[in-house]
Amino acid sequence: MASTRFDFNTALHQCAQGKNAALKRIYEHEASQMLAYGLSLLESPSEAEELVRETFILSWKNSLGFDASLGDGRAWIYSIFRYRAQARLRQRGSGGNTRHAPSLPSPNSGATAFLRSVIRLDSVSRQILLIAYLQGSGYHDIGQRLSLPANQARSRLRAAVGQLRDSISTLRGRSLSEQQLLIAEYTLGLLPSAEHQQIQSLLQHDDQAAQDALAWEYELLAFCDGLHPVRPSDQLLWRIQTALGHETTESSPSTLQRSADYLKKNSWNRPTTPPSFLNCCVRILHQASRFLTA
Q1: CA-CA distance, 51 to 35, in Å (whole number)?
Q2: Which of 55, 120, 152, 256 has the fewest Cβ atoms surrounding its Cβ within 10 A?
Q3: Could you give the C-alpha distances from 243 to 54, 58, 102, 248, in angstroms and in order?
Q4: Shortest CA distance to 187 belongs to which of 146, 129, 142, 110?
């Protein structure tokens, strides 16, 4: 589970100042959790890594637009991540990951008020919320999985939003308007195209709406944090830094290095090749790789 003690707001402000190291710190802290979430949504490791790459690139490029008065920095980064994930799911015409039913993170003494409120929901409403957030499914697909009409799935979700209202910082003590319900559904990726565009336009000029959306993003991250972290490939950070023109601290894996690794992995199934010859090849390739990258 990712720690919330990292100061994302400061790191994003440093990104806006052009400090490359700040983006690397965010990556080192968050990439494994983000990749786990990407896999939960997309199932494909390569697509999930590409989604993480896009998110870090866009977070850097848009860091000047981050306003801490509107919400938390981590929630802001994940709003970019989820927007790109939803675009990928729409493009592939997929209802999201349907292989298994998602489970709620185990509550502990440090569980948030939001997570405790989710636990108190009835099981069907809780599953609608989890399937939407963790697997990227819309009302139609959720209804099919839970044997509910799509409109009933929406009614159940909206009732759950009302029950969760007081655990959302910007909504506490306020009566829920239709606009606030739509913002919650927008954050979960559940709105049809016309309503999606309506709320997206609203968020661009209405600070209160933006605060509400980021408050939902912040609390919903409790579901993401319940996923087991997944270590990204060794090349992912390099790919992000290279795309942004940042100075990299690590070299890209060279062709020679990859060839040496391939020989090591596949030497077992080449019985006709003398082991001494293979060892010689591996040593030569490693030495040449070190020479070229020095």
Answers
A1: 8
A2: 120
A3: 10, 11, 34, 11
A4: 129
